[in-house]
Write a structure and sequence with these properties.
By secondary structure, the chain is of the alpha/beta class. Helix content is about 35%, strand content about 10%. It has 15 helices and 17 strands. The strands form 5 sheets. It has an 8-stranded mixed beta sheet, with helices on both faces. Strands 12-17-14 form a 3-stranded antiparallel beta sheet, with helices on one face. Strands 1-2 form a two-stranded antiparallel sheet. A hairpin with a 2-residue loop joins strand 15 and strand 16. Helix 1 crosses helix 3 and helix 6 crosses helix 13.
């Protein structure tokens, strides 16, 4: 079908604007293809605006539209730069998010994306689930604003199975993806201009959400055991924040897991401050096969509604399965629901039905086991290659879940120059600076996670406390854990992104994209 469409596209100059094309029967005979192939090729060209079809009359070359008038849009610069009535900035910076969504050039090994590599996605199971979902009675009708009852119940059971009693289906909202859930929750919990405590380094998409809403991210540093809870009480007091956003499990980008002793401290500090904890549990199903059982969510220890819990199906399936859930207790649920309805009305019912079909199929547990095994194998291949080729960039502790690797670089390294040179040689990596909420202040050795010889600094290299940022330079090889072995960023990489694992001294096998939402 694609070849026929391409061929017909090259023949369009034979026909005048508005001229009639050969009939479907003529095209079948001329190109020796089936009528279904012709029908699909014509439908593609019609979708591209190249032709129009008239029932009973045939297909015609589309009439060329007159070129749009050239106007003067310079007035928009003034309108867009004007501050709001509250004096809050109105700019929206999506650069940190777009860096993980952009398609790399052909042949580039992608270590800076946001999702599982295509080879790890359950595409056949998803296709079958979507086909079955589309045939369900009422599948194309309007679903309840909160989500289908069956899917809400599944998310509630999924949370309970992880050791958290949870709020049950009544406290569950189905949301169009984790990023959308995060955006709606933060707008529901904090007004424009409000401070919000965040981990540092953290997921750039979170920082983009906060700044777009006019909220102010206040950094609290992360070390090898997760969020520095010894700084939380002072951070709440000094900032006046009433919201903390954290990723206790396989934090993006460091991969840290919140230490058991820190969990009660975190919740106690939030309760004392009268604050909500937004638990972004994006990596719950991304543990590696050798990681052992993950700790329960923070929501497991919270009967009082302090924790607003977010979990998503997107990260462990495919980018376009934009289905997540927000689980909470108490009066906040109504506000969360109102924000979601205003923003989205509802999550499309076919997508919800497809999610139900997928998680209820025998292929679902097999897929989860396969992802866990493959992520663990690729992490091992990557860290082995780093130890051999770039030992100074080895992290202090290899992650046991997720698909990020936060790499320390030698003192004084220009992370942007390094990333540019890596891309020139065929490897896409992400500089770490975008993962930090602030960028001022001198380095503080006691706040650093050091690399080989004590000279490296974590990822983007800036370590932050409630009082400000710690300087440095670094790099995040975020997607590389899902990819397999990684070469030195300055080593040329050749070959397909789905090629098998190489011998120990060769460049790595394929890559996987990374990132949260």
């Amino acid at each position: 079908m694609g070849e026929l469409a391409d061929l017909l596209r090259t023949e369009f100059d034979r026909y005048p604007s508005g001229g009639k094309l050969p009939s479907s029967r003529e095209l079948v005979a001329r190109h020796r293809v089936g009528p279904v192939t012709v029908s699909r090729a014509l439908a593609r060209l019609a979708a591209e605006g190249l032709l129009v079809t008239r029932p009973g009359a045939g297909a015609y070359r589309a009439v060329k539209a007159a070129p749009a008038a050239e106007g003067d849009t310079s007035w928009q610069h003034l309108a867009l730069s004007a501050d709001s009535l509250e004096g809050l900035p109105r700019a929206v910076d999506a650069s940190g998010v777009l860096a993980t969504l952009a398609e790399p050039p052909a042949g580039v090994v992608e270590f800076n994306g946001g999702y599982l590599h295509p080879a790890l996605r359950p595409e056949r199971a998803l296709a079958a689930a979507l086909a079955r979902a589309g045939r369900r009675p009422g599948a194309w009708g309007r679903p309840p604003a909160e989500g289908l009852p069956e899917l809400r119940a599944w998310f509630a059971r999924d949370l309970a199975a992880d050791g958290a009693g949870g709020p049950g289906p009544g406290g569950t909202l189905v949301s169009p993806g984790g990023q959308s859930a995060l955006s709606g929750v933060l707008r529901a919990l904090a007004p424009p201009g409000a401070p919000v405590l965040v981990e540092s380094p953290t997921y750039p998409g979170l920082l983009a959400v906060l700044r777009a809403a006019g909220q102010r991210p206040v950094p609290v540093p992360v070390d090898a055991d997760g969020l520095r809870t010894d700084l939380l009480a002072e951070a709440f007091r000094a900032s006046g924040a009433r919201v903390l956003v954290c990723q206790p499990l396989h934090q993006n980008p460091t991969g840290a897991v919140l230490a058991p002793a820190r969990r009660p401290v975190l919740l106690a500090a939030a309760r004392a401050a009268g604050a909500f904890v937004v638990e972004d549990d994006f990596a719950r199903r991304l543990g590696h096969a050798d990681a052992g059982p993950p700790p329960p969510p923070l929501a497991a220890d919270d009967p009082d509604g302090v924790v607003v819990h977010i979990r998503s199906l997107t990260k462990v399936t495919a980018p376009s399965l934009r289905v997540a859930a927000v689980l909470s207790r108490g009066p906040v649920l109504e506000r969360l629901r109102a924000v979601q309805v205003v923003d989205h009305f509802f999550v499309p019912r076919p997508l919800q039905e497809a999610a139900l079909e997928l998680v209820g199929s025998p292929s679902w547990p097999r897929h989860l086991r396969s992802v866990a095994a493959e992520l663990g194998a690729r992490r091992a291949a990557l860290t082995t290659a780093l130890a051999r080729r770039l030992p100074q960039a080895l992290p202090a502790r290899a992650p046991t879940g997720g698909y990020h690797l936060w790499l320390p670089l030698p003192e004084g390294t220009d992370e942007y120059a390094l990333a540019a040179e890596a891309l020139r040689r065929g490897v896409a990596v992400a500089p770490g600076r975008a993962y930090h909420p602030a960028e001022t202040g001198p380095p503080a050795p006691q706040d650093q996670l050091r690399g080989s010889g004590g000279r490296g600094r974590t990822g983007g290299g800036r370590q932050e406390t409630g009082g400000g940022v710690r300087g440095g330079a670094g790099l995040s090889g975020r997607a590389a854990v899902a990819a397999g072995a990684a070469p030195s960023p300055l080593t040329p990489v050749k070959g397909s992104s789905t090629s098998p694992a190489p011998p120990p001294r060769t460049p790595p096998r394929g890559t996987a994209p990374a990132r949260s939402a």
